[in-house]
Amino acid sequence: MAILDVQYQQPLGAGGACATRHAWARVPRDPAPAERVALKQRIRELLEERNAVMVSHCYVHPDLQDLAEETGGLVSDSLEMARFGRDHAAQTLVVSGVRFMGETAKILSPEKTVLMPALEATCSLDLGCPAREFAAFCDQHPDRTVVVYANTSAAVKARADWVVTSGCALDIVRALHADGQKILWAPDRHLGHYIQHETGADLLMWHGACIVHDEFKAFELQALMREHPHARVLVHPESPAEVVALAHAVGSTSAILQAARAMQARDFIVATDSGMLHRLRTLLPDKRFIEAPTAGNGATCKSCAHCPWMAMNGLAGVAQVLESGCNAVVVDPRLVARARQPIDRMLAFTAALKTGAATAGLVPHLGAA
Ligand code: SF4
């Protein structure tokens, strides 16, 4: 077990000034081969016994991704995780990811038990957007529709008109903009700038950042592109604008997978958490995936392209929560109904998009929350 000190930026209001803060992550050791086999077998049995299903994010350890797939669970991004957890018949969801993912699952399925192997796994975007400060920011701008990224606490979601993920943010903001709505956006500034650039929407921004994607460097990426001139570059939009500008495709982890599948190229440079590389290599074994660089000349990386909080999830933790029922996610009941509204709005909008149904009627003027 390693205890990591993790630095993140805490925005001081909406002006762009930030303070450096510290958090921690407790990362379990990798089990030895025999222990790994035994843990996987035990988890399989417990999933059956407890009527449970695994829902794993594609940034967590490969073991948790593989086991979720092998046992009928899901490996995906936060949008699909939310949908899958809500619709699956299992009464217990084992969510491997970070805290806001477990909270979203619980908000959508309050009658289900939601267990997390790492209940304390957080996210720099969530940490960097405290509910009280965010509410004050919203109060100063009552004329704006409040759109928050899924990487936020239940209390911040409860203050929002819309929740979005990187998989649907562009479509939803584009629809709000077409309807003439001005937007208050939180918390990721890079994703916000990307959306603003793509849609032309009027976005007033909170200045949070993901500690993993914020570290990708354009200068180093250009050098790597020169080494691999035929490689296509796939970038998550939580990355800085100069990195996004070099991309051949920009999008959520699901969109990155789709782009890699659709493009003719054999080599890809990928700017997102390195956990995603396992998924890409597993699903597209004939293609080659190279990690994008995170540090400039002489610099040392902080996250080194792997989220320390995602790394808190491990096989032993999954076995333990299934065995004991501990680490159940609890969301303040006073927040559940209010936080659910903007999530439901997102799910209804994306479901309509999928079926080709009209979405214009799904973006009402909501006013201040
Ligand atoms: S990878 Fe970034 S956005 Fe995702 S949980 Fe970690 S800190 Fe948060």
UniProtKB/TrEMBL annotation:
GO terms for molecular function: 4 iron, 4 sulfur cluster binding; metal ion binding; quinolinate synthetase A activity. The keyword GTP-binding does not apply. Its EC number is 2.5.1.72. One of its GO terms (biological process) is 'de novo' NAD+ biosynthetic process from L-aspartate. The keyword Cytoplasm applies. This is Quinolinate synthase. Keywords: 4Fe-4S, Cytoplasm, Iron, Iron-sulfur, Metal-binding, Pyridine nucleotide biosynthesis, Transferase. PANTHER family: QUINOLINATE SYNTHASE, CHLOROPLASTIC (PTHR30573:SF0), QUINOLINATE SYNTHETASE A (PTHR30573). It comes from Comamonas antarctica. Pfam families: NadA. Its cofactor is [4Fe-4S] cluster. One of its GO terms (cellular component) is cytosol. Transmembrane segments: none annotated. Pathway: Cofactor biosynthesis; NAD(+) biosynthesis; quinolinate from iminoaspartate: step 1/1.
